[in-house]
TrEMBL record, chain A:
Residues 14-164 form the NADH:ubiquinone oxidoreductase-like 20kDa subunit domain. InterPro entries: Hydrogenase_assoc-protein, NADH_UbQ_OxRdtase-like_20kDa, NiFe_Hase_small_N_sf. GO terms for molecular function: hydrogen dehydrogenase activity; iron-sulfur cluster binding. The keyword Oxidoreductase applies. This is NAD-reducing hydrogenase HoxS subunit delta. It comes from the Bacteria. Its EC number is 1.12.1.2. The gene is hoxY. Pfam families: Oxidored_q6. It comes from Psychracetigena formicireducens. It is an enzyme of class 1 (oxidoreductase). Keywords: Oxidoreductase.
UniProtKB/TrEMBL annotation, chain C:
Pfam families: NiFeSe_Hases. Its cofactor is Ni(2+); Fe cation. This is NAD-reducing hydrogenase HoxS subunit beta. The keyword Magnesium applies. Mg(2+) binds at E43, C62, L397, H449.
Automatic annotation (TrEMBL), chain D:
GO terms for cellular component: membrane. Keywords: 2Fe-2S, 4Fe-4S, Iron, Iron-sulfur, Membrane, Metal-binding, NAD, Oxidoreductase, Repeat, Translocase. The gene is nqo3. Residues 219-275 form the 4Fe-4S Mo/W bis-MGD-type domain. It is found in: Membrane. The keyword Membrane applies. Residues 138-167, 181-210 form the 4Fe-4S ferredoxin-type domain. Residues 79-118 form the 4Fe-4S His(Cys)3-ligated-type domain. Its EC number is 1.6.5.11. Belongs to the complex I 75 kDa subunit family. This is NADH-quinone oxidoreductase chain 3.
Length: 181, 539, 475, 568
């Protein structure tokens, strides 16, 4: 079997989906033996996907800042199949609860009002990503080919999806593999 | 009975009132008294002709239409026309047609020339607040005839023979509907007049109720006799203050002289009518939602079957007819089914009242026999498109109606012909849009209306509408991909196929037809980021 | 104005983080910044939610230590409903917390920071990762995977699932432990303790060989904050807070609920992560560190025997003074790993752990409640305010990494100044800068490794910030 | 009746007329998904999830589509499945469905539908609008963010429970579920019967006490009978780790048809009284824990030595325990000195011949005679409201405020109670609901009324006890045994015990009665007991033990039997 290159990234998220990926435990080794090469992922990663691109791109997390938008677009360009993993990437997830408020309200609470903050101010350095007015799902920015929902998705779902894709099949998540919570 | 020399119909629909109709009325009365004409000139409040300017005064005899934009013109008008008999040209309504039509001729000649007034026979001619005038125009003759000479079965068979069909939109044979209710075993039975005319732009029922309320009451009594009911309800749209007032006046007058109540005309037939006021919900025009509302519940449609004929109001057999349908009944009884069948065409007998509006020169309520083509209605009766522009689209049948594109202008408007092109005439609204209109802007307004009027019971309509609107807003804000049009179509199809009642289905149809006929316009918006009609603002 | 080196992403700390290093005209490091580049607004959007949902909402702050948030939240909610959970409930909560510490610490040491220490700072970046570790020492690597898995299994078997479990509820927990689960967890415990001890001996060997690096690698004085139990024993779930100075003298001892009297946070324009400090001394005098190093410095003893022995060794290194080197975090972390495994055994052997007395009936709602726990990375504070119905009015969260924010910046600055030479820039130098961050294990991906070359962006900026030139090396 | 032949998914089937396609399909094991539909509620066809495809190619909702002759439908055709997926997408997009912190996750019907139809992402954009959360109610969370407007709660509240608290306000996309037209739930006329939460398919109406305590399939479910009043409602209790998590009304119960009241549904979850867990003896002013065997020995010895051994038993214990109690006194102790913790007017008891709760629902007139069932017998109040809504007249005889006054046709002062006789003269199907502790004078009036009588006994097994000859306290006793269940002992009881020199109390909880006792033996609560109760209609129903009693704690019956063994 040809090598299948995978790149992954996380955007506005808690990293739980990548933890669930690690929760495949010994099966990661099995995938590697089956031809998976992890490039820029949290377990064995580059900082950016290789110039020539990868076969599968995985995004965890929603789109919360301009930098996330750029990164999602970049990965989309670099991969053939893009997977949105976890509720945040799939539909915006828990972080879209900030959409109920204006960006300013949220920042004000975080940096000016919290009880332990003294002489607060809202960080504005150019080095920081700028919060978008509303958090978006990955599909609102780039085309997504496959979704693995869950908060986080069970390790089994991630394993099954990757294995099916490796076999050239379109994965169908059913039963215990499809979870929203 | 008092005889007036001049009858002045004053437009007092809500739009006219906003333009100062009540001030005009006060001033008119003042001036008439000043000139000592109070016994010669009668002012009648009516609806308007749908002319989107000023306050309209229609003066009979002659039927001249004045458009008053300034109260200060009244003294001159009263002096010149009412006192001295000289029409005031500068205040007359002018149709803004290519060849300017000046409405100096009597209204019968200009506007009415092609019309046949059966349903509107008394409208504008009699004082609707005086039962004697109705009686003088053969009113309650039909009821008397029915009660004295016909059995209920005979009445039903006469109506069946006339091939009268429901004017509410579905065109269901009225006689058959009555027969179903007559045969239903449960008791009591009810007659409902559906006067919840909620279709934007349509006001034909209002014109009837304001102009000829007794015709409704008489018809309901006939229907009640035919099916064995003793109680009727007229469910009137809440905004129709004048209709409500006039219907109540009419009911009171009928009761006073024994045309309603117990032992009508000395027979053992009892019938009573009550006016019930709707709260302005479009969906309550749907018959089962209307009945829910009448029962004091939230106005939401019921599942059918069971149909009202067997389980209607309070689950009792119920006849529910539209105002316009009912208005036909007395003449059918008096002149006979054969006479009635002489009007219209095969499959669509009688006349139809249309509300003509939009980008057309002469707007208003018109009545013609079935079988006129849209071309005739728009270009002959309506004096063509405003400013001589080209026609883009006709929406036939109101917000829930169908799109008719210019290539179908020669299709006669009757149930069968219209059905053949996949359309329906609905409530008879004819909305004319010229080439400068943006179909997306139009659709947005339509969907906003449906969204506002959705009752919220079923998911596809309640949720689908706001989502469709979101999508459209994204089209007009240049924030959508072309393949999302496919998604919009999918959404509309689900709404059409699964919505509980006609509202959701109709709304979906508007989307589907827009996409069917004007997809290029959508694509144009998305691709160029520019609205060809310049209606959608900066994209 | 000199050049600017951007390490981006250092991958993220609850999102993105990146380091900018400014060089002076001589090519030496002038100053550095660690930008914590994510903000999600949990403090705002939890407003309006029923208080009991906080136990499920807040774990989504962090998928690596969700159990810590879950439990800190549970403790805050216990305070809100005015009850103390029954002992069995506390044992079970602490048990999954131990599972959390085992998996988090194991993963950090073996998978993430390990390659730096075991393979070398400037070893081939293509292999300086867990795969490289597998190649170098497959047996050890497998043990590492198993140790992490064991920690996750404690959580999964006791609380239902590995990540974001629903287990603790206000007043207790929602399920009792079965004998089968207890026995299955106990059956593997000794093996796991042995693996941990192996890790400790590796760490100690490394320390012995690298004393010189440790001295120059982010070693600086600071205060230390952490929970301690009776007799200043190491505590990760309960207890009171102890705040000590750089000499180990006690600044304050206080109840977690009173944290606002002692801790304040400062905002810097260049980071979304705030900088907490000891209120009475102000910023930056009152800065302190949290996490394994702070806890080991603050603890006088450990209640489990093997870890206690190890703590004695640790203490002997400082001759009675707190240890200050950022790299010592790794050693302290392994001692805690050992404690966590031993403590899990103690809990599992406590007969009360099988009891079904797992939840207390709620009392009257209190206007606010504080929950504090020692997450693997340090002190975690949840503070909630509710209305009379129990709807969240406000939330204040100080997360573990936050307390170390200043220290991370300081360590990065130190390491950059000591090891980065702008004229002869090498990938390994930048890796050491990242290594400084990894000591604090601020979050999962901060501590991960890159295969291949470090992507590097060197920008030459004018004084007004306009870019003259940039050199880019993509990995 | 003529049989109907129709085809579902190509299979010809034969059914009785009068059914919907959904009912037919279900009876043939074909699962058509529904959300707004609930077997106990009338179909409304709102969610459209149950659409099936007809031979004519239309999509029709199975829940309201009548099965007619020759009908052919497909229940999972590609068009049907696509439509369902889309409808689910609309539902998920309408409000804010964050499963990860939702109490109902795992038990949520909307979530299950998403899983069933493989919804792996939402077709619409992320959530933007927050809906209100009403947390004001003591037991019920009303979370509009998770509401799918299926109206099950409204139908349960109105049609099943008769309370008419919940309704819809606004329309279209702005439609909102609302108690009493936009009142917070706490301030509304809600009587906390909880029927709404029981039928809610999502986490929109959730039970606060059971929140996050586990999923239904992790719990043990036990059918039993509620012991909080004499109605004897069927319940389904959910327990986990021997903790009571929630109580549902049992739909199959002939008594309450799934409806409960606050006492039945919520009060057992909120039990904060202190349990008696070990036998305690008081000697020389000191309390000491003793072994169960010693306690039995001590108690029986005292009873044996007594001149006039007396016994009082709780009407909340099972018929089996009552039986054992009677034998203990009549046979082992040879004493007739027994009583009940409640006393009733025997004549009132005899008045009721064969009245049953169903009679209320078909009554033309209902009388509440010196009784207010709302707080004590909630389901009776429910039934009365339903009867009134259907058109029955309600007459109330009381000098106090009655919570059902709003529904009353007329309220009489007790001094004018005799007016009832004339008022009801021409009424058919009259049900008189009365307080069985009324005076004989009241009974003289009531005798003149032709009606079905329903005395509302206080306790779960009051009638069972009366039938066994137990009613009222004993006269006088030197050594007394009280089988108290969860009774705390009111002033009257304590006063009647003045002469008792040695008091043995078998009790669930610490109470003034146990304070007075010389010897306390802990007993299992009704939740921990199996046996039978006889309800106010005279129905004897099985009670099943829902939870295990604490270690060493026995049931009343077992304890009494141990007494008998010890006495030989």
């Amino acid at each position: 079997m040809a090598k299948v290159k995978i790149a992954s990234t996380w955007l506005e998220a808690c990293s739980g989906c990548h933890m669930s990926l690690l929760d495949m435990d010994e099966r990661i080794v099995e995938l590697i033996q089956a031809g998976v090469e992890f490039t820029s992922t949290p377990i064995t990663d580059l900082k950016h996907p290789p110039e020539e691109g990868v076969d599968i791109g995985i995004i965890e997390g929603a789109i919360g800042t301009d930098l996330h938008e750029e990164e999602a677009k970049h990965l989309r360009k670099k991969c053939k199949i893009l997977i949105a993993i976890g509720d945040c990437a799939v539909f915006g997830g828990i972080v879209t609860m900030r959409n109920y408020f204006s960006r300013e309200e949220v920042l004000t609470r975080g940096y000016l009002e919290t009880e332990s903050t003294k002489d607060g101010k809202i960080p504005t350095s150019d080095e920081l990503g700028k919060l978008l007015p509303k958090v978006k799902a990955v599909k609102d920015i780039v085309k997504v080919d496959f979704y693995i929902p869950g908060c986080p998705p069970p390790a089994d779902s991630i394993y099954t999806a990757l294995k099916e894709l490796l076999g050239g099949r379109v994965p169908v998540l059913k039963g215990d593999l499809l979870k929203y919570d | 009975m008092k005889i007036y020399r001049l009858h002045v119909l004053l437009s007092t629909d809500s739009r006219s009132i906003l333009r100062g109709a009540l001030e005009v009325e006060t001033k008119l009365k003042e001036e008439i008294i000043k000139k000592g004409l109070e016994n010669e000139v009668q002012i009648l409040r009516t609806g308007g002709w749908g002319i989107e300017e000023g306050v309209q005064l229609t003066v009979y005899p002659g039927g001249l239409i004045y458009v008053i934009n300034n109260v200060e013109d009244i003294p001159y008008l009263v002096e010149e026309h009412f006192l001295k008999g000289r029409p005031v040209k500068k205040l007359m309504y002018e149709i803004d047609a290519p060849a300017k039509v000046e409405m100096t001729a009597p209204i019968e000649e200009e506007i009415m020339k092609k019309q046949t007034r059966i349903i509107l026979r008394n409208v504008g001619l009699i004082n609707p607040e005086d039962i004697k005038e109705y009686i003088a125009h053969d009113g309650y003759q039909a009821l008397a005839q029915v009660l004295s000479t016909m059995t209920p079965e005979q009445v039903i068979s006469e109506i069946k023979a006339s091939e009268l069909s429901g004017r509410g939109g579905a065109g269901f044979p009225t006689g058959f509907k009555w027969e179903l209710t007559a045969k239903a075993p449960a008791k009591p039975k009810y007659i409902i007049c559906n006067a919840d005319e909620g279709e934007p732009g349509t006001f034909k029922d209002r014109v009837i109720m304001e102009g000829d309320p007794h015709s409704i009451i008489e018809s309901m009594a006939i229907a009640a006799y035919a099916v064995g009911a003793n109680k009727g309800f007229i469910y009137v749209r809440g905004e129709y203050d004048l209709s409500i007032d006039r219907l109540n006046i009419a009911i009171k007058q009928s009761k006073e002289i024994g045309l309603l109540g117990n032992n009508i005309l000395g027979t053992n037939f009892d019938f009573d009518v009550e006016v019930r006021i709707g709260a302005g919900s479009y969906v309550c025009g749907e018959e089962t939602a209307l009945m829910e509302s009448l029962e004091g519940k939230r106005g939401e449609p019921r599942s059918k079957p069971p149909y009202p004929s067997t389980e209607g109001l309070w689950a009792k057999p119920t006849v529910i007819n539209n105002v316009e349908t009912l208005a036909n009944i007395p003449l059918i009884i008096l002149k006979g089914a054969e006479w009635y069948k002489g009007l219209g065409v095969e499959g669509s007998r009688g006349t139809k009242v249309f509300t003509l509006f939009g980008d057309v020169n002469a707007k208003g309520v018109i009545e013609v026999p079935f079988g006129f083509t849209l071309k005739e209605l728009i270009y002959e009766i309506g004096y063509g498109i405003k400013g001589g522009k080209n026609l883009k689209l006709v929406q036939l049948g109101g917000s829930s109606g169908s799109f008719i594109t210019p290539e179908h202008l020669d299709v006669p408007i009757d149930w069968n012909s219209v059905r053949k092109i996949g359309a329906g005439q609905g409530s008879g609204a004819i909305l004319v849009l010229d080439e400068t209109r943006c179909v997306i802007d139009f659709l947005k307004n339509l969907l906003a209306f449906f969204n506002h009027e959705s009752c919220g019971k079923c998911v596809p309509c309640r949720v689908g509408l706001p989502k469709a609107l979101d999508l459209l807003n994204r089209v007009t804000s240049g924030n959508v991909e072309i393949d999302e049009l496919g998604f919009m179509e999918e959404l509309a199809n689900v709404m059409k196929n699964t919505s509980f009642c006609g509202l959701g289905q109709a709304a979906a149809n508007q989307i589907l037809e827009s996409l069917k006929y004007f997809k290029s316009e959508f694509i144009n918006h998305i691709e160029t980021g520019y609205c060809p009609a310049n209606k959608c603002g900066r994209l | 104005m000199g050049e600017k080196i951007t390490i981006s992403p250092v991958t993220r700390i609850e999102g993105h983080a990146r380091v900018t290093i400014y060089l002076n005209d001589n090519g030496n490091v002038d100053k550095t910044f660690v930008h914590i580049d994510q903000f999600r607004g949990f403090e705002k959007f939890s407003e309006g939610r029923p208080y009991f949902e906080m136990l499920q909402i807040t774990p989504r702050i962090c998928g690596i230590c969700p159990v810590s948030h879950h439990l800190a939240s549970a403790k805050a909610c216990d305070a809100l409903i005015g009850v103390e959970p029954p002992k069995p409930a506390k044992l079970l909560r602490e048990l999954i917390h131990m599972g959390q510490c085992v998996q988090s610490h194991a993963m950090h040491f073996f998978h993430l920071a390990g390659p730096d220490l075991l393979l070398g700072w400037d070893s081939n970046p293509a292999l300086r990762n867990v795969v490289g570790l597998v190649l170098a020492n497959p047996e050890l690597a497998l043990k590492a995977v198993k140790l992490r898995k064991y920690g996750q299994e404690i959580i999964a078997k006791v609380a239902g699932r590995r990540i974001h479990p629903t287990f603790a509820v206000p007043g207790g927990v929602n399920n009792q432990l079965t004998i089968e689960v207890r026995d299955s967890l106990l059956s593997e415990l000794d093996t796991m303790i042995a693996y941990t001890q192996e890790g400790i001996s590796i760490a100690k060997t490394w320390i012995g060989a690298n004393m010189e690096v440790i001295e120059k690698f982010g070693k600086f004085p600071s205060g230390y904050l952490g929970l301690v139990n009776e007799g200043d024993s190491l505590e990760l779930y309960d207890g009171n807070l102890k705040l000590t100075d750089s000499e180990g003298k006690v600044w304050e001892r206080f109840k977690p609920a009173d944290y606002l009297d002692f801790i304040e946070e400062r905002v810097e324009d260049w980071s979304y992560l705030k900088f907490p400090y000891y209120k009475k001394l102000g910023y930056p005098k009152g800065v302190y560190r949290v996490g394994p190093l702070a806890r080991a410095n603050n603890a006088e003893k450990i209640t489990t025997p093997l870890a206690n022995e190890e703590l004695k060794t640790y203490k002997s290194l400082g001759n009675g003074r707190p240890l200050e080197g950022s790299l010592v975090y790794h050693y302290a972390r392994l001692i805690e790993l050992l404690y966590s495994a031993e403590r899990a055994g103690q809990i599992l052997n406590d007969p009360d752990v099988l009891s079904n007395d797992i939840i207390a009936m709620p009392g009257d709602l209190q206007p606010h409640g504080v929950g504090v726990i020692e997450a693997p990375r340090g002190t975690l504070i949840h503070h909630y305010w509710i209305d009379e119905d129990g709807i969240m009015q406000k939330a204040n969260l100080i997360v573990s990494t936050g307390h170390n924010n200043w220290a991370i910046s300081k360590a990065v600055d130190d390491v950059a100044k000591n090891f980065v030479d702008g004229k002869k820039l090498k990938e390994g130098m930048l890796n050491m800068v990242e290594g400084a961050i990894r000591c604090y294990d601020p979050c999962f991906s901060c501590s991960t490794h890159a295969i291949g070359k470090m992507p590097l962006l060197v920008e030459l900026k004018a004084a007004d910030g306009t870019l003259f030139d940039s050199v880019k090396r993509e990995g | 009746m003529e049989k109907l032949f129709l085809k579902i998914n190509g299979n010809e089937i034969e059914v009785e007329p009068g059914l919907t396609v959904l009912q037919v399909a279900k009876s043939f094991g074909i699962d058509i998904p529904t959300l707004c539909h609930h077997d106990q509620l009338s179909p409304i066809g709102a969610c459209r999830l149950c659409v099936v495809e007809t031979k004519q190619g239309t999509l029709q909702p199975a829940c309201t589509l009548p099965a007619t002759q020759g009908l052919e439908v497909e229940t999972e055709s590609p068009r049907v499945v696509e439509a369902r997926k889309f409808i689910l997408n609309l539902l998920f997009a309408e409000r804010n469905h964050y499963c990860m912190f939702c109490e109902a996750s795992g038990d949520c019907e909307l979530q299950n539908m998403g899983y069933r139809y493989g919804i792996d992402h939402f077709a619409f954009s992320p959530y933007q609008t927050k809906f209100p959360t009403d947390f004001s109610h003591k037991y019920i969370l009303l979370e509009h963010n998770r509401c799918i407007l299926c109206r099950r709660c409204i139908r349960a509240c109105s049609d099943l429970a008769g309370h008419y608290v919940l309704g819809m306000v606004n329309r279209g996309a702005h439609t909102m579920l609302s108690p009493d037209m936009e009142s917070p739930l706490k301030a509304s006329s809600c009587v906390s019967c909880g029927a709404c939460a029981q039928v809610c398919p999502t986490g929109s109406l959730a039970d606060k006490i059971g929140a996050f305590r586990g999923k239904a399939d992790e719990m043990t479910k036990t059918k039993s009978v509620c012991a909080n009043c004499s109605v004897g409602c069927g319940i389904l209790a959910f327990t986990k780790a021997n903790h009571l998590i929630k109580i549902w009304g049992e739909w199959e119960s002939p008594v309450n048809h799934g409806i409960l009241c606050e006492l039945g549904r919520f009060s057992p979850l909120n039990e904060k009284r202190k349990r008696v867990l070990q036998p305690i003896i008081r000697q020389e002013g000191r309390r000491e824990v003793i072994s169960y065997q010693d306690a039995i020995k001590k108690a029986t010895q005292k009873l044996k030595e007594a001149k006039n051994p007396g016994g009082i038993i709780s009407p909340k214990t099972t018929n089996e325990a009552l039986e054992a109690f009677n034998i203990l006194f009549s046979t082992s102790l040879q004493s007739k000195n027994t009583g009940l913790m409640e006393s009733y007017n025997e004549k009132a008891v005899k008045l009721s011949a064969d009245g049953c709760l169903e009679d209320i629902l078909i009554a033309n007139a209902v009388v509440l005679y010196k009784v207010d069932p709302s707080t004590s017998h909630g389901v009776v109040a429910s039934w009365v409201k339903k009867a009134v809504t259907k058109g029955a007249y309600l007459y109330i005889v009381t000098d106090e405020e009655n919570s059902l006054s709003f529904y009353a046709t007329e309220t009489f002062k007790t001094s004018e109670a005799d007016k009832l006789v004339n008022t009801l003269e021409n009424s058919k199907k009259v049900v008189v609901i009365l307080n069985p502790q009324v005076e004989s004078a009241d009974l003289e009036i009531l005798k003149k009324v032709k009606a079905v009588f329903l005395p509302l006994y206080k306790s779960a097994n009051s009638l069972g006890a009366i039938k066994k000859g137990l009613n009222g306290f004993f006269e006088k006793s030197d050594v007394a045994l009280i089988v108290a269940s969860d009774f705390s002992g009111d002033g009257n009881l304590l006063a009647s015990l003045q002469d008792v020199s040695y008091l043995i109390v078998i009790s669930n909880f610490v109470s003034p009665l146990t304070e007075r006792a010389n010897l306390i033996i802990p007993s299992a609560t009704w939740l921990e007991t199996s046996g039978t109760f006889t309800n106010l209609e005279g129905k004897t129903q099985d009670v099943s033990s829902i939870m295990e009693a604490p270690e060493g704690v026995k049931t009343d019956k077992a304890i009494i039997e141990d007494f008998m063994k010890a006495l030989g």
